[in-house]
Amino acid sequence: MSGEVSAGVVTTPPPSLLQKERYFDRINENDPEYQRNRNMSPDLRQDFHMMEQKKRVTQILESPVRTHTHTVRRKT
């Protein structure tokens, strides 16, 4: 068995995956916001995200109530 050579099947990904941009290709390491986020302490980062979530919830709660655009027809 140790002397056997097996031929493996080589497959290539579809062309759409070959051209797909990877996450790390999109990061600009010289971007000041990226550097600030990277250097932020984990506790501070968590607090920042919590504040952002609270801000979004406040915006939702203070937004005007949307009404349905269709009317309900009652049978008479």
Describe this protein's structure.
The chain is mostly helical and 76 residues long. The chain has a domain at 15-62. Helix content is 49%, strand content 0%. It is built from four helices and no strands.
Keywords:
76 residues, mainly alpha, 4 helices, actin filament binding, Aldolase-II_Adducin_sf
Explain the layout of strands and helices.
Blueprint: H1 15-18, H2 23-26, H3 32-39, H4 42-62
| Amino-to-carboxy terminus distance | 85 Å
The residue fraction in helices comes out at 40-55%
Biggest sheet architecture: none
Number of strands: 0
Helical region count? 4
Choose one word for the global shape: flat
Mean pLDDT: 75
Task: Identify low-pLDDT runs.
Answer: none
β-strand percent reads under 5%
Structural category is mainly alpha
In short:
By secondary structure, the chain is mainly alpha-helical. The protein is built from four helices and no strands. The relative contact order is 0.05.
